Amino acid sequence: MVKVVGVRFKSAGKIYFFDPGELEIEVNSNVIVETARGVEFGQVVVPIREVAEEEIVAPLKPVIRVATDEDKKHADENKQKEEDAFKICLKKINDHNLDMKLIDVEYTFDNNKVLFYFTADGRVDFRELVKDLASVFKTRIELRQIGVRDEAKMLGGIGVCGRVLCCNSYLGEFQPVSIKMAKEQCLSLNPTKISGTCGRLMCCLKYEQEAYEEIIGRVPRVGAIVSTPDGQGTVMDISMLKELIKVKMDKGNETDLQIYKADEVKVVKDAARDEDADINFEELKKLED
Fold it and tell me: DSSP states of 88-129 as a string?
């Protein structure tokens, strides 16, 4: 077991583990830590605890110190510098006539590097821009192209549910989402209905997927032939969360619709898999990362 403390550098950002050493560190306190890109200012969100060695990425970087008032003042000054740098970079992008959208600017705590985050439809030759920015800021410059999901996480916004975007408010890391999840949750495969503000599949498709996968194992598919307490019939519709199925009963020359609980029927012949021939999956695949 290894003693660690969890630190976050951005609101709803990824949590990184560091070695607290002999320091006494409380949750929500600010700390100065050594990272792969230099000295950084972060906030403790996971208290000191022991975790298995396989849960960490070795070697574990140390916490240098608990942040002082002077450190907090310097962090605030960096925030102001970032605002100024954003305006300067925007002007330089226009001067170089580059097809890119500047999203955010970030100074490392020790001011050894300035990172500029941007989005673009393709590759951008920003070599001259980097030289221009380096001559202005007199430090190392890094331009980092990000995807639309990261853009939404940084900028924030309101989702179709009316709440602040999950990625911007509390999701530390993005989870994989797929068209298969939308199908299994019986959602409309209309891209406008299942895509989020970023234009990709909504992250919330992941939240209930485990429950749906469990239910799918108990509920027959539409088109399956099942045996019921009233005879044999064909599944016409299902209510996944209620685990109810609508069955068309075959009674001589007459047909009748009955509703049963999933545990009241037994599959006689499973339905063929729906190939969704009328659905443009090439278009839907664009919603996945």
Answer: HHHHHHHHTT---EEEEEEE-TTSSEEEEEEE-SS----HHH
